Every structure is written in C-alpha cells, then in structure tokens.
Amino acid sequence: MPLLAFVSSITLVHSPSSFFLLSKLSRPRMSSSTSPSVSIPIPQNRVVLGLGTVSVDFLAAVTSYPNPDDKIRTTSLKVQGGGNVGNALTSAARLGLTARIISKVANDSQGRSILEELEADGVHTSFLVVSEGGISPFTYVIVDNKTHTRTCIHTPGSPPMVPGDLSRSSLLSALDGATIVYFDARLYETALVVAQEAARQNIPVLVDAERKREGLDDLLTFANYVVCSAKFPQEWTEAPSIPSALVSMLLRLPKLRFVIVTLGENGCIMLERITNETPDQLEEFEVDSLLEVIKGRKDKNINIPTSVSSPVAKLRAEGIGTVCGRLLLGTAEKIPESEILDTTGAGDAFIGAVLYGIHDFHFISSLMCQHATREVVAIFCPGGCWMLSGFGCSKRSSISYRSMLSIFLTINIC
After folding, report:
1. Is the predicted pLDDT of residue 260 greater than 90, yes or no?
2. Which residue has the higher pLDDT, 375 or 356?
3. Is the pLDDT of residue 342 over 70?
4. Closest among 408, 410, 397, 411 to 81, alpha carbons compared
5. What pLDDT, on a 0 to 100 scale, did the predictor assign at position 12?
6. Confidence (pLDDT) at 9
7. Overall domain count for the chain
8. Claim to verify: residue 141 and residue 111 sit in the same structural domain
9. How many CB atoms lie within 10 A of CB 148?
10. What does 240-299 look like in DSSP terms, one character per residue?
11. What are the beta bridge partners of residue 101?
12. Fewest Cβ atoms closer than 10 Å to its Cβ: which of 66, 71, 282, 407?
C-alpha cells in the first residue's frame, strides 16, 4: 500500500475549540468544596512507587541571564520543593494516584521542608531516609525571562543514598501493592536494587531518561516504559534521526512497551510496540517518512494541541531494523511569548500524567500541559485513547489537581 494511502487512515484529534474560558480559571485546591458535574473515575490498583532525587528549589527569575561579573536583581523569587521524582510524584498524587517515594534528605530545615510539602500533596514519605547529619539537596534555578530558559545549579545531598539505607523489609513494604515503579535515573545503585526486586515481582518499570548517566544502561534493561528528552534517543543509540532512534530503543530493550520523546514547544512523539498483530499482515513503512507524512496531517491554522496517530504497521529504520507498532505525534498549544514565564518542572509533570495514563486504558499516552498564567490541561482522544498534551509547566505550584481534569469534561472537551 502506498504511504499516502496508508496515512489516509491516520487519526487526527483536536482539543477544545477555545481555551478562553479555561484561561480564566484559578487552580483548584484539594480542599475545594465545589465539585464539577462530570468526574473522571480514579483507576483501581493505582500505587506508584518512585525513587530518585528530591530537593529544595530556589527559583530566581531575572530579566536576562547575567554575563560574567554582572550584578543583577531578580524580578521574582520562589522557594519550594523540587527534584524530578518529587515533582513527578506530586503530579501523580494530584491526579489521584497513591504515590510513595524513596529518596534521602538530611534532618535540616530544607529536609523538613521537602517532607512537609510532599506530605501536604499526599505523597507517602515513610520510605524516605532522613540522615541525622549532612545537608539536604538543593538547586538554584535561574529563570531567564528574555529567552524563557532556565539554568539549574544543583548541590547533591550529603551523605548520598546507598543501597544499605534501604532495608530488605522496607523495600518489600514499599513495593507491596505497587502497580508501577518510576525511576528518575539518580541514586542508581539503590535504583538497581529496587528495579531487580520489581522485576522479580513482575511490577512494570518506567524510566526517565534525560541524558546519559552512570548506571542508566543497566536500569533501562528493566524498563517497560521510557520517557526521554529530545536529545537522548540519538545520543544513546547513535541513530541518524529521532524516529529511527526510537525504533532502535525498542529493538535494544525487548521489555519496552512504549517510548516517548518530549520536544518542548513541538510537543512529543511516542512509539508504541504492538504485539497482538500478525506481522505478515501488516504494511511496512520507513519510520522517518511516516513521521513526515503524519506531520503533514497537522492543522497549522489552529493554536490548540492536536494528536495524530498512525495505524499499526511494520516500522522500518534503515540499517537498524523493524518493529511492529504505531507512531503518535502530540502537538503543543501555541502560547504567546508574553504568557510563558518558565518551564521548570514541565517534564516531571508530563511523567506524572504518563504514570496516571498507564493505570487507565483511557489514558494510554499522556502529557501534562501547564504554564503560569493559564493553568491548563488539554485533553483529547486519539484512536480511543486519551492524551493530555501541551507545553510547559511553571514550577511545582502550577501542577494541576484532578479537579481541573473534571472541569475540562464539563465543557465538552471530547
């Protein structure tokens, strides 16, 4: 079948026709007494265990990033909890999952602040190790208002977490009833111990692959799901393009069910492995060419997020191999520059939504959309699945609550 004829069966779905009403909504609080008329059912068996870094973030916004020896003033300053696993589990907990965390802090003011903020958002901290001495992790985040970028300067906690900090009984208790385990690829020695036990118990694993790190290759061998940064797939596989790199990842990691690469303002790409089809009955297409045709199916005249999903096919990467699966392209809302403050925590909020999606067949692929002046989650339904899609999250305080999702359903999103 010619590629263009094949693509005629591609599913294109739009989000709501207008975000004007949503732009006027304030962030719902967990204690809000109002309840939307439409609610999203919380998935059953919904315990996510996360292991990785937590920190206190000092977020300083500046007019533009300073030159060497410059003295400048901030335009705003916010101090709050951060760290990949801390942010992602906050997102998951606010969406309704039961979240547990394994990490390490010191018994200092910053460590106590980290614990209090996680607990206030419903994240279970009983497996978080507290050292009587040392310092808790913290990060200076410089937000450039001119370029809408952020620079992170991280100070690791001391003493670092080691496998001996987590007893066998604590490990088994943390995994008891868990339906997925999430790793941000830090604290890799302890992460590998937890991943091995998760695999022994047949608990699925999601790995956040931002960049090459010590121990990440070993951790990826346990992964059923991977969410990675824009540069990681090609850096890790040395493939010539992102689509061919995604094919390579599925071939190199046989347990992998899907991989998502986040592309910031350009949305995301997801390659999902399909195993319940007969390969001989599927059409075969070169994956880079298929992605280009999918991109051509986007409606360039709209600002709102859209999702384009290919039918199941044999996807070939030249010189690499072939996998059976489908390719999904999630676009992002075109946000005016004047409304973008910073994107700190966007990837972590995305992963929180993915963790939710894995627990509910209605949310097979998920992407959290947040930004400071309009706290928005755009929801739409590609091929019978739900996807939350968009660009940007301004700090942990902007991560949405579950009640926001219900509000979207009340205004006929799908």
Report:
1. yes
2. 356
3. no
4. 397
5. 55
6. 55
7. 2
8. yes
9. 15
10. SSHHHHHHHHHHH-TT--EEEEE-GGG-EEEEEE--SS-GGGS-EEEHHHHHHHHHHTS-
11. 50
12. 71
